[in-house]
Specification:
- The chain is α/β, with parallel strands linked by helices.
- The chain has 15 helices and 13 strands.
- A hairpin with a 5-residue loop joins strand 6 and strand 7.
- The protein starts with a helix and ends in a 7-residue tail after the last helix.
- It folds into two domains: about 150 residues, D-Maltodextrin-Binding Protein, domain 2 (3-Layer(aba) Sandwich); about 170 residues, D-Maltodextrin-Binding Protein, domain 2, CATH 3.40.190.
- The strands form three sheets. Strands 1, 2, 3, 4, 8, 9, 10, 11 and 13 form a nine-stranded mixed sheet that branches. It has a two-stranded parallel ribbon with strand order 5-12.
């Protein structure tokens, strides 16, 4: 082997070794998950980066379902360390985590949010019930004769004679979204259960019950929108009569241009979401991969920054970004879980 060939071989081995080392270690966090959580999570990320001098975490706002899927993919060097969620992790997702070696995991409730049906501020405030929402948005509804039919309702007045005669047009997220999950479970299903025979159907044919009560229609009454909240808000302001399914964190700073529909007579606001009286109030979560602790620099510091009273407390800097804080007892409970990285209990 001549000197040139030897030098080339040494250089190639060094390059490959460097590439392998880059693939086996990293000095930054990877964070994925709910787009609802990211507006205030990004504030924590910016402060964490500034105060620690560590590299800025790689952030991917994938939505709740997509984030959990990535989080549960494994413990490889490019798998996420943290995912945020606007609903609890499901049993089948926990099973996927366990199958891929992502076990144990830590569940930290970080605060509350609500799902709001927001309309243009130029429109009257809609007063809806959970039954109205089901009859407006379900793919199938009871026909009154013991069977089900494709949803024929075209206007809100078709749903309820006391509502306006405007066309049903609701803008909402795609499947996998935590916001959509809450709409389906907390509003549509609960509205479905108010109709005669549906509780019996749950006992007799549970899968048919879930299909009928939770499946959203796929015609022009339900319009899929992307995850750009600013674009969605601008669009709904300019679309009289339409409603946008969004988070309270997006709704609150835009209240001058939007109004929020009441549900069962209760409006979405800080108090009704914090006390749980608003139908579509929901908890928000941070899931942490214990396999990353002690392996990925900065994980523990980021968690401590996130659960500081100056961050998630009642007067914390996340509050203006839409986070409704936990009560004092819950904050103490979940702060202890987060600091000690206590694994979640699997029932």
């Amino acid at each position: 082997m001549n000197r040139l060939t030897t030098a080339f071989a040494v250089a190639l081995i060094a390059a490959l070794s460097g590439h392998a080392m880059a693939q086996s270690t990293r000095d930054y966090l990877i964070i994925v998950g709910s787009t609802t959580v990211f507006p205030f999570a990004e504030e924590v990320i910016d402060r964490y980066t500034s105060s620690t001098g560590r590299p800025k975490p790689q952030v991917q706002p994938t939505g709740t379902g997509g984030g959990i899927a990535l989080f549960c993919n494994g413990t490889h060097i490019l798998d996420p360390d943290i995912t945020f969620a606007s609903r609890p992790i499901r049993e089948k997702e926990i099973a996927a985590c366990q199958k891929n070696g992502v076990d144990p995991i830590v569940e930290v409730k970080i605060g509350y949010d609500g799902v709001v049906l927001a309309g243009s501020g130029h429109d009257p405030v809609m007063s809806l019930t959970r039954r109205d929402l089901y009859l407006a948005l379900a793919k199938e509804i009871p026909d009154g004769k013991g069977d089900f039919i494709a949803n024929p309702n075209k206007t809100w007045r078709d749903v309820n004679e006391n509502l306006p005669g405007t066309a049903i047009e609701v803008w909402g997220p795609k499947k996998g979204s935590g916001t959509r999950y809450v709409l389906q479970r907390a509003a549509m299903e609960e509205g479905c259960r108010t109709l005669e025979g549906m509780i019996d159907l749950e006992d007799e044919e549970p899968w048919r019950y879930y299909e009928v009560c939770r499946t959203i229609r796929e015609d022009q009454a339900y319009v899929l929108v992307g995850e750009d909240d600013n674009l969605n808000v601008k669009g709904i302001i300019a679309k009289p009569g339409a409603l946008l399914i969004t988070s309270y964190g997006v709704f609150e700073p835009n209240m001058g241009n939007l109004n929020g529909a009441t549900i069962d007579g209760i409006e979405p606001n800080f108090q009704t979401i914090a006390n749980g009286s608003y139908l579509m109030a929901r908890p928000l979560y941070m899931y942490v991969k214990t396999a990353s602790a002690g392996k990925i620099p900065g994980l523990e510091e980021f968690i401590i920054d996130f659960i500081g009273d100056d961050a998630w407390g009642p007067a914390g800097y996340m509050r203006p970004y839409g986070l409704i804080p936990l009560g004092e007892e819950e904050r103490e409970k979940y702060a202890e879980i987060a600091i000690s990285l206590t694994p979640m209990k699997i029932l």
